[in-house]
Amino acid sequence: MKLQAQYNKISIASSILVLLIAGAGYYFLLQYVLKEQLDESLRVEQVEIQDFIKTKHALPPATTYKDQRIEFIKSDRIFPQSFRTLTLYNADEKDNELSRQLNFNVEVNGQYYTASVTKSQEETKEIIGAILIFTLGLIILLSILLFVANRFLVKRMWGSFQATLTSIKNFDLNAPSAIKTEKSDIHEFNELNENISMMTEKVVNDYISLKNFTDHASHEMQTPLAVVNSKLDILIQDPALSEKNLQDLQVIYDAVDKMSKLSQSLLLLARIENNQYSEKQEVDIPVIVKNIIQELEEWIIEKSLIIKNEISVLKINMNSQLANTLIANLVINAIKHSSRPETILLSSDKNKFAIINPGLKALDGDRIFDRFWKSEYSDGTGLGLAIAKQICDYYGFLLQYEFKKGSHHFSIIF
Amino acid sequence: MKLLIVEDEKELAENMASYLKNENYTCEVAFNFKQALDKIETSDYECIALDITLPGGSGMQLLKELKNNKKADGVIIISAKDSINDRINGLRLGADDYLVKPFHLSELAARINAIIRRKMYNGNNIIRFNEIFIDTLAKEVKVKEDRIELTRKEYELLVYLLSNQRRVISKNALISHLWSQEMGTGESADIIYTHIKNLRKKLNEKGCGDYIRSLYGMGYKLTDQ
Asked: Hey, which of A71, A166, A288, B176 has its CA 20 to 30 A from B13?
């Protein structure tokens, strides 16, 4: 539920509740006050009748005037005066009316009478009715007002918040631009905007220094690696080395090689992230594929593989170095993981490049492009496919993996 | 012939000097900008191996200095930075080659040899080892007077062996020289072995001595001793 709707619901419901309670309070209070007033006027009539009897020693005439009726009935007993509410038929209005009656004893020349003064309560009813209608009118008016006010006023007040929200939604850490905020009349929103600006600035700075850290760390590793490599190159010149010594040195060589490949791969990833390959040109994919296959020819022959190259015209606008890395990593991956003499198929479509090689079982499609993910047979850095993915993500290409009919299918949709 | 190594990492500089030193070359070393500048100003070198980041200044600055003084010294930049821009910058300033750390000393030697060969205008583009002659301009290989046909990789392999004659070259150095792309480490030994075998066979067919020694498959050496 939207904040505004929630707010509407609560404010309108509480207003109605208060108005209803107030209405009911009014109703009972007014009813009480009006009844007291009516009873008071009945008592005034009573005093008048008693005065009349005291001076004239006779009963005043029974009258029916407007809403007031005075009657006398002979009575043989004395009872205390009493008020009561009753429904009487009104001949004028041809209607039953709610009335208030005061009964009391009078004595005229030794004869007791029950005197009753009756007044209609219709007026009271009308007043109460008017109040109820007025209260209901107020409820409806207030609801409409609240609704309209919330809709327009609140919408305007939240405008700055909406702008901030849109800005946050569009924020991209890889292409950071300052969060755009609107100055608002609302203190809280201004405070929110300030804090968001500060937070994003810090995040961006941290992110940049983290990226630079990878770059620097990889660079700093190159020189020590060069020292190790050069020392090894010197060391193997020693004619006194035994076969065992040389085998040990081979292990060190391989480890150093792997480490330098690792740092170069990390450097490449950092550079793609840092947008250092922004130069673009039209890259002829068939030419790149041909060069890569030629470069790897001896390896392919050594493994008795057959490469079926069915790539036709495919020109992509991208950085040529990255295009080469992307295709090479996929081809190398396929060659590396082919254990028996088999056929690797390279094919292309209007905007698609695909490489298919037979395999024993499906790879973990969810993790295959993760950094440092390796299949159980891999002796590489675990970054080859991650780099391919990074390049594809950089250009918005789709890199997919599927295992179909006993073959690994890697495809790029440009 | 004199070589100069400008590198602030002392261990690396000394390893480079010790590998490059032989009957033909003498090697001098500078560890910082000032030492390098002094040496450049006072003598001429066949080739200078130049690190970019130096205490007291930039290798690029030294390069500018050389070119301003119209020195003909060959220059190979040795840098931890492998970026296209640095490479282009270095070559535009007049460097002959660009080598990225970490590298193999055999690779450095091969590249320096190539630079020196190119610098010599007296048509000396022949590398020789006993009866083997390589014409690096025509990319031709002869054993005595007989031409032999080699594949592109076999040719590069032979040039590399001759550039590092009488020294052990590691298998890893050979692989990274011959293939720019990464290959499976387990399989690469077989590929090198196949290539060496084919090259040896082609040389022997023309009556060439058997000069290529294998050190249990971990390294190779071209030697007549």
From this structure: B176
